[in-house]
Design goal:
By secondary structure, the chain is of the alpha+beta class. The protein has 4 helices and 8 strands. It has one domain: Gcn5-related N-acetyltransferase (GNAT) (Aminopeptidase), CATH 3.40.630.30. The chain is globular and about 40 Å long.
Length: 176
């Protein structure tokens, strides 16, 4: 399946479609707050392209050869713009990614891993020392994938988003 998808920076005309996909995916997560419970969060998802207005921040998209958007993720080359709760925005020599979402029709084919690897490759190219991410109990499939890729729980990055516990992870990208 990966052979038919390319990961690249999203084009502004794709931002709305990616935002709609993000809202749909996150709203369907069992145990995750619904739009009525966290409207500000879902507004950020719907307007996902706004993140690209920040320095060193990219919206990456997985696009099939037929033009289907299979998923997306926001990459942060400067943690100052990561926008989470907790201490993650103070991380130095670190990059992060957030808001990875896949079209339910393409889940299980390795596209989430491909988006994650692309973020890791960008961070390594930039010379970052660490990759920081967050997940929730509602995202167990992603959580397991991150751990299989070497991410380790980082309790110091945990925070509460309203009533939702959000768990931090780190991956060392280089020694030193």
């Amino acid at each position: 399946m990966n052979a038919t998808y390319t990961i690249r920076d999203a084009k502004p005309e794709e931002f709305q479609t990616i935002g709609e996909l993000m809202v749909k995916v996150y709203a369907q997560l069992e145990g995750f707050p619904k739009p009525v419970e966290q409207p500000t969060y879902y507004d950020k998802l719907a307007n996902i392209g706004n993140f690209t207005e920040n320095p060193e921040t990219r919206l990456l998209v997985a696009v099939s050869s037929e033009g289907h958007i299979g998923g997306g993720v926001v990459y942060f080359g400067d943690m100052e713009y990561y926008g989470s709760g907790g201490t993650a925005t103070h991380e130095k020599n670190a990059a992060g990614f957030r808001l990875l979402a896949l079209d339910p029709d393409v889940r299980g084919g390795g596209l989430g891993k491909l988006l994650t690897k692309t973020c890791l490759d960008i961070a390594r190219t930039e010379g970052q020392k660490t990759m920081v991410i967050h997940s929730t109990k509602a995202m167990q499939v992603a959580w397991a994938m991150y751990e299989s890729m070497g991410f380790e729980r980082a309790l110091d990055l945990d925070f509460m988003q309203g009533e939702l516990a959000v768990y931090g992870f780190r991956l060392a990208l280089r020694k030193g």
